[in-house]
């Protein structure tokens, strides 16, 4: 993702440049208007009481542009952002952040479609890796695979639990030839480097597949599908509760300067 050098300038905090358009009784920008900022950026769209508000198009001097809704000077609602490297996001915004449901088109051909929070992939979504055709379909936490998910390859897929962008815990491989293998991924600590006693050991670790029995592919009953759906929903709620608790702790620990 490419957010560098694509921050909008606040017209109230810099030299305003030029403006053509409507004004209210207080001579604030109001209604349809076009502004050319001193830094080379331009905005054309709706204003309300001096702030970008409603639909508009903001063009950055570096070639990036945003087309969509504003609320009191911030990207808020539905909008499309085209970044300087050619990547693009289409979807929901909340106070200048990608939040809600949206689709991101990456410059290498990858795509992500699903839920966002505070500018990162968070919630339920699907990521397609263009180079291999592999899909990850499942839950995300702060930009990483976490919770119930599926990693779908050309002729097989893994269905199970993920953590920190890797499978971890119980799951199964389902093969197109009509069989599935149950098992689990366990954490395997990496070997320690030759270091002195006072040196920090490497914290890196990998996971290893511990295979179980191979069975014919099981066709899920309606009850099993509903149970799986409820488990996925429970994982999602767990993530949301974790975010809420974290935010509450941060607020409770805040000490005014």
Q: What brief labels describe this structure?
A:
single chain, 257 residues, mainly beta, Histone H3 K4-specific methyltransferase SET7/9 N-terminal domain, 16-stranded antiparallel beta sheet, elongated
Describe the structure.
12% of the residues lie in helices and 53% in strands. The longest helix has 31 residues, at 222-252. The protein folds into 3 domains: 17-100, Single Sheet (Histone H3 K4-specific methyltransferase SET7/9 N-terminal domain); 108-191 and 205-219, Histone H3 K4-specific methyltransferase SET7/9 N-terminal domain, CATH 2.20.110; 222-252. Strands 1-2-3-4-5-6-7-8-9-10-11-12-13-14-15-16 form a 16-stranded antiparallel beta sheet, covered by helices on one side. The protein is mainly β. Strand 1 and strand 2 (29-36) form a beta hairpin. The model is unreliable at 193-203 and 253-257 (pLDDT under 50).
Poorly predicted regions are: 193-203, 253-257
Radius of gyration using CA atoms only: 24 Å
The CATH architecture designation of the largest domain is Single Sheet
Number of strands: 16
Helical fraction equals 10-25%
Largest sheet: 16 strands, antiparallel
Using the coordinates above, name the CATH class of the largest domain: Mainly Beta
Q: How many domains, as an integer? A: 3
Termini separation comes to 34 Å
């Amino acid at each position: 993702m490419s957010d560098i050098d694509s921050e909008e300038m606040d017209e109230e905090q810099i030299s305003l440049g030029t403006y053509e358009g409507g004004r209210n009784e207080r001579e604030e920008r109001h209604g349809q208007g076009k502004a050319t900022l001193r830094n080379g950026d331009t905005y054309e769209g709706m204003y309300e009481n001096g702030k970008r508000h409603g639909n508009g198009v903001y063009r950055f001097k570096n070639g990036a542009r945003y087309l969509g809704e504003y609320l009191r000077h911030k990207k808020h609602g539905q909008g499309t952002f085209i970044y300087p490297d050619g990547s693009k996001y289409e979807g929901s915004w909340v106070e200048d952040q990608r939040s809600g449901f949206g689709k991101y088109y990456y410059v290498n051909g990858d795509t992500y479609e699903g839920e966002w929070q505070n500018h990162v992939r968070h919630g339920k979504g699907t990521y397609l890796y263009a180079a291999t055709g592999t899909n990850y379909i499942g839950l995300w936490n702060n930009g990483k695979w976490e919770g119930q998910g599926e990693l779908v390859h050309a002729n097989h897929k893994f269905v199970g639990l993920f953590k920190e962008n890797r499978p971890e815990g119980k799951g199964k491989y389902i093969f197109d030839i009509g069989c599935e293998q149950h098992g689990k991924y366990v954490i395997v600590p990496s070997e320690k480097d030759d270091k002195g006693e006072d040196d920090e050991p490497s914290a890196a670790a990998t996971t290893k597949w511990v295979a179980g029995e191979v069975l014919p592919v099981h066709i899920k009953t309606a009850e099993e599908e509903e149970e799986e759906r409820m488990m996925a929903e429970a994982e999602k709620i767990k993530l949301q509760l974790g975010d809420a608790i974290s935010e509450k702790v941060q607020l409770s620990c805040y000490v005014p300067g």
